Amino acid sequence: MKIAMLARNAQLYSHRRLVEAAETRGHQLDILNTLRCTVHIASHRPQVFYNGEPAIGYDAVIPRIGASITQYGLAILRQFEMRGCWPLNESVAIGRSRDKLRSMQILAKHGLGLPLTAFAHDPKQTSEIIKAVNGPPVVIKLLEGTQGIGVVLAETEASAKSVIEAFRGANVNILVQEFIKEAGGTDIRAFVIGGKVVAAMKRTGAPDDFRSNLHRGGSAQLIKITPEERSTAVRAAKRMGLNVCGVDMLRSNHGPVIMEVNSSPGLEGIEQATGKDVAGMVIDFIANNAKVGKTKTKGAG
């Protein structure tokens, strides 16, 4: 099988592991720098070029699109889809998951556990949205943030108002969420492949940091999740339409609540914490499911 991976940094642990897992199983995996891909749009002849040459002959594509280039990356992925190339995660599903507000609305619609969340445009409504999430304290998040960047804990109403008004004054869109104190600075990352949780870890934030992201200095360890947590992760992946994702949850007094569904989850933390060959599981899923033209959305939004 010939697989393309849309990624900018070939040296990242996750990308090197996927190449290694593919080659071990006899597949060819080429890393295509997303920003060096171009699309030629013509009736009946959708084409993708890489460094000026046609990117053809691929059976499947693994999108590892950075958050900062989401729109461009999705345009490239859609072009592969229109050529009949099978995507590990479809463009529509990735776009859905990258929009934090939309993803929260979808998960809430289907009854999945979430922290109380509020969204408003007018800074004058600051007091209203703080009250709506039972704050303070409250967690304030940039809609476009990733890896813990743009996430602020405001412990008083005055500090919450100051942060919210500053963000809105700069015309930056934010979400305000309740602070789940009982989580104790830890969360759970459940790694889902093909509708099954294949690995799970508990992430603990660095000292004096309520965020548990490994990129922010947090640590990870193996954890046994509950049937309710497993079911929540699987249902979240299904509602987002993602074949592979990381579902981040907090343990609250009223059960698991979802913080985020990540369509390009890293492999280093989960593999090291669990000792599992998650990269190999991803490649095996592709080999067992990739078929030309099997994209549900056919690349159309």
UniProtKB/TrEMBL annotation:
ATP binds at residues 141, 178-179, 187, 211-213. Its EC number is 6.3.2.-. Mn(2+) 2 binds at residues 260, 262. Keywords: ATP-binding, Ligase, Magnesium, Manganese, Metal-binding, Nucleotide-binding, Protein biosynthesis, Ribonucleoprotein, Ribosomal protein. Mg(2+) 2 binds at residues 260, 262. Mn(2+) 1 binds at residues 248, 260. One of its GO terms (molecular function) is ribosomal S6-glutamic acid ligase activity. One of its GO terms (biological process) is translation. Mg(2+) 1 binds at residues 248, 260. It comes from the Bacteria. Binds 2 magnesium or manganese ions per subunit. Residues 104-287 form the ATP-grasp domain. Its cofactor is Mg(2+); Mn(2+). GO terms for cellular component: cytoplasm; ribosome. Belongs to the RimK family. HAMAP family: RimK. This is Probable alpha-L-glutamate ligase. It comes from Qipengyuania algicida. The gene is rimK.
